[in-house]
Amino acid sequence: MLLPLSYGLEVIRFLDQAPSRPRNGTDHRYAENEVHQCSRLNENIELMFSGSMKQNRRPVELVFRDVCVSLGEKEILNNVSGRVRPGELLSVIGPRGSGKTTLLSALSGTLKINSGLVTVNGEPLRDEMRRNICYVLKEDVFFTNLTVRQVLKFSALLHLPDAMTCHEKMAQVEHIIDVLELRQCLNTRIGDEMKRGLSGCEKKRTSIACELLRNPSTMLLDEPTSGVDSGAALSLMSILKNYARKEHKTFVVTFYQPSSQIFHMFDRLLLLTDGQVAFFGPTRGIFEFFCHVGLHMNPHYNPADFIIEQVKKSPEIRKKLIKAAPNFSELKEIRGTIERTSSLSGLPLLTDPIEDIGDSGVSSSSDAYSSVFSSEVYLPEEVETWPTCFWTQLKVLSRRKFQEAQGRMLSNLNWIQTIGVGLVSGLLWFQMERTETNLSDIQGWMFFTTTYWMLFALFGALTSFPLERKVMNKERESHTYKLSAYCLAKMIGEFPLTVILPSVFHFISYSMLGLHDPQTFLCLWGFLFLNTVVAQSVGILVGALCVDLEVSVTVSALYSLSTILFGGFYAKTIPSWLLWLKYFSILHYAVNNMQIVEFGGGSSIRCAPHNSQFEVCRHGNSSIIPLEVIIEYQGMALPLWANTLIMLIFLFLFRIMGYLVLRYIPNPR
Predict the structure, then answer these.
(1) pTM as predicted
(2) Is the dihedral of CA 19, 24, 26, 28 positive or negative?
(3) Cβ-proximal residues to 515 (8 Å cutoff; 6+ apart), any chain
(4) What is the pLDDT of residues 455-508, one digit of tens each?
(5) CA distance 116 to 133
């Protein structure tokens, strides 16, 4: 039992962690003196990208013109244009459903645009440029069992290049921690609805910290202050504002209704309503714009509240704003800039798709606008450059998987359940005599053991996969690692953890049943573990195929129950037209192997003194039941090596199928 465990632990040996400060147990409090806070932030920002982290990244001017996005027949964005320069903070505000998140997804390249053009420093946005654009989602997606320090450590090891030493990477983590004021919660787990962990603000800061480690040129943040109190929101936006100014970074941030203090931090403002531009330009210009269309704001009123109230009042006001926006804002200047860029780059001049629609109802300029982004949501595996090499990805992901899965797979409840079931089964089959009368009971123990651990592993992998898919998708979209490295790391990282609980159960239960031979004990344990790993692979495959948890549970229940029925214990006589299904049953091969080992290598099974069901006992001179007779009576004919080979084929087949599903069906319905 200890050999595989020690091997697995050696494979995923932990990195030496930097010294950390213990959490004092109190909630995070933000400094009330904003002047002192900003000066301290500036000092931290100047330190953050010193030394080896300083990369030659040009400041970025991001310009987008006439971006259109449709989902089916529904138009989400209609000719949305804007611009943000280095060191500026562009805020995209608007009511719910106005297209703010869709615009960020389009700019980041994670969503296909139907038409329009996006340029970076005058060049059309390409895949290699997208690596310098970070997208912080509205939802903070993490492995909930990891601490803040662990999340940042693994993010740095995956995102920072191999040319940097581990010490240099950890130094950058420490700088990021100070910049975003995460020192007090370093050793706190992320947590979720069931387990208490970080506050909403601390989670958001951790999300931003993971992206800042990449030293991006452009950052897109979707409602970074949602679910955060006003003081924490103001502090966070102060950090981002100072960071953008000091490092000449380009920021695009979406908001629903920011406070007045946050509103005045914006350099430029893009107001969206019904997926169209209602205003774009310097933030201070929106007051004059609203006065121009006859909407006057009262003094001492939050401008953001006033703006949202107006655009939500009536369709007439929204139409008036949309109609006036092109003549009052910078949209004409953006159009001219994009047209000059198209001319210099050899692209055809872009015409307004609304003004050039053929009989089909589709813009004839759509082809000229397209090809800026790939039609795939996920970055292609064939891109040549990665932040780190394959072996670094495999090593880091294996360590992270072990630490993430440790608290989940070896939870206190799982320990209690394993020990409890082991004791109950051991008492139920306690010291069984090796007689024909008890033969079915011994076989029942084998069938129960393999069934229990098959279901435990299958549904354990199934229920944990939805969150794992979210984290993987987010990291794959940012082109962090190869999918092959992730899948191999999952196997390596979970291997020692998968061994432990079945081993404890087997040691308790089989010892109470009657430990007859150490070699038999080890062989039974090996086949029990193989059965568990194969079932875990089935859970991963079903979880990859079915996004909806209810559907995946139904599919898994159907498969597992069919496997049990055709396993050969409940029904020994199967109709001929269904007989072929037993060869797809995991339990069929696992139980067969356990019987071959137990009845062939352990103590022999003695015949019943009277009325034996075996002919060899009734008419022969033998007082024991041969192994071949028991196996034949169970309807199992394959030898030990064949059963083992088929189980291994199942293992690799399910794992490879899971990889192919994740690789080619990233968004199953």
Answers:
(1) 0.77
(2) negative
(3) 521
(4) 999 999 988 888 888 898 888 888 889 999 999 999 999 999 999 999 999 999
(5) 19
